[in-house]
Amino acid sequence: MIEDPDYTCMQCVVTGKVQGVFFRVSARDQAQHLGITGYAKNLEDGNVEVVACGKVAALEQFKDWLCAGPERASVANVSCIPVKMKNHPDFRIL
Prior knowledge:
This protein is of the alpha+beta class. The model has no long low-confidence stretch (mean pLDDT 92). Helix content is 27%, strand content 40%. It has helices at 23-34, 56-68; strands at 7-17, 37-42, 48-55, 74-83, 91-93.
C-alpha cells in the first residue's frame, strides 16, 4: 500500500445501547457512503468494535456519525485510537 498522509485507519469501541438496534448495518451503510473500508462487530460485553480506514476527512465524518448512531441506538461513548493501516476491500459486518 502506498503511504498517503491523508489516509489512515482507526479502531473505535462504541458503548451504550448499540446492539440489537441495527448499529452495524447502519455503520456499514454510512461507511460505504463515505468511501470507508473496514468492519463493525459486536463484542461480548455489549459494545461494538469498528475498524475504519479512509481519508481523514471521511473518518472525521464517520466518527461524528458513530457518536450518534442510528435512530434506535443510544450511544454513551466512542473511544478511538489510530491503528496500523490494513487493506480492507470493503466495509463488512463481522
